Amino acid sequence: MEVSGRKERNKEVMRLERESVIPILKPKLIIKLAYLIEHGTDRAEFLKLCKRVEYTIRAWYLLEFEDLMQLYSLFDPVHGGQRLEQQRLSSDEIDVLEQNFLTYFFNIMEQSNFKIVTDDEIEVAQSGQYLLNLPIKVDESKLDMKLLSNYFRKHPRDKLPEFSDKYIIFRRGIGLDQTTDIFVMEKLDMIISRLWGWLLKVSRLRKLFSKKPKPARSNTDPKKSDEPSADAKEEDLVVERIRIQNMELSMKNLFGKITIQEPTFDRMIVVYRRASSKTQTERGICIKHFKNIPMADMEIVLPEKKNPSLTPMDWVKFLVSVVIGLMTLVGSLEMPKADIWVVLAILSGLIGYCAKIYFTFQQNMVTYQNLITQSMYDKQLDSGKGTLLHLCDDVIQQEVKEVIISYFILMEQGKLTIDDLDQKCEDLIEEEFGEQCNFDVTDAVRKLEKLGIVIKDSIGRIACVPLRRANEIIGTTTEEIVLKARQGPIT
To answer: How far apart are CA 422 and CA 426, in angstroms?
Structure first.
């Protein structure tokens, strides 16, 4: 997924490339496809094939997942230390085991269609504000810098974020979050900020307070920041950001409830290790799993966050404003004919700005605490072993759905090139289920070939074997034997 921000007809929108995740529940998918099959006999054979495909794919991954869970039991932050002591392993042996675990883990993340968040994505996502309006920083002194550094040294990757030596953030899926409220303090902050900007413009002090622009990245063309990229697909998802900062000043907006919205990452997983103390070496690997995280508020998933405070720039603005205000006030009073209204205006503006900084910070602190609490109870799905179990099952579900959809299309359409198969699978998902995804046809065909239920002709076209033959090729699975045994002998 590529994330980019741009302005479109005075609206702030984000163009999001479709991902490879199939956002359909497997039972719903199977029932719907079976319903599309006309003949009852073929329908029964198709349902049998779906079960055998799932049982077989689950068996493929069983040993790999078992190794993953066994390795993580040694690095569980709660009980892993005790297990490592029982194993009596040397430091070098533990280093090898933790790198093996990370290798398994990153493979699972890739198979689950998770992507590592890049610096560019973070910059675009945080270019706006949603509910969190405080600068959140990570206390890097509390994080280990060896674990991930050693892994990426042996397994280099492109576009790693700057913090990849301390922690890694994965994301998958795109959603939309909306919040409706009066937003009294936020609207007041917006009004004062616009007045402050107008005063800076009139007094020509804007340059004093303006932030230095960040150097442009080598892969970013600033001339195209307000236009869709030339290679952007028409079917890309375009989501509008609705923020208070861009709100029109109208009576309805100022005194009534408004709705703001922000794109979300449907799933986010954070991996890190806490720093070792002087007396104890930390070996635990922390894995946190979150859901529905607004892009502009992704700081809430950061590990070991510092308590937020006013930034140095806020203090500079505050102190300079006080000095300028007092100097202007004294100068007005020393004039032979001091205008009391001018004095009151200056004094009111100075007090209002100081109050704005204080009350805005206090309001943001309350919001921050609420968001952190919500992330712990509502948005954090699981951690550690629970997250790994979820990922293992998720890999199986995605693999099964890819195989079922691609086989169904080949069964209905006959021989197809890989590009035609890709397009028809995506069309089926959109037409029958109203969802969009970038179907991973290469991986699907690879699994179909591994199952032995498709063939390729001399020019590369793909065709599936008949349903009955496909079931014979896969054969009776262990699960079917167990289920038959449970039913007992037929009398």
So the answer is: 6
Report the C-alpha gap between 439 and 420 in whole angstroms.
12
* Calpha distance 399→65 (Å, rounded): 15
pTM for the structure as a whole: 0.77
Q: Which residues sit opposite 168 in a β-bridge?
A: 271
Mind listing the pLDDT tens digit for each residue in 74-133? 999 988 888 888 888 899 999 999 999 999 999 999 988 899 998 888 887 767 778 776
Take residue 415 and report the two structure tokens written for it.
Answer: 């021989």
Distance CA 265, CA 176 (A): 8
Q: Which two tokens stand for residue 189?
A: 């902050």
Are residues 478 and 56 in contact, defined by beta-carbon separation less than 8 angstroms? no
Q: What separation, in Å, do the N-terminal and C-terminal C-alpha atoms of the chain show?
A: 57
Per the CB < 8 A criterion, the answer to whether 387 and 287 are in contact is yes
CB of 142 within 8 A of CB of 22? no
User: Which residue is associated with the tokens 């959109």?
Assistant: 430
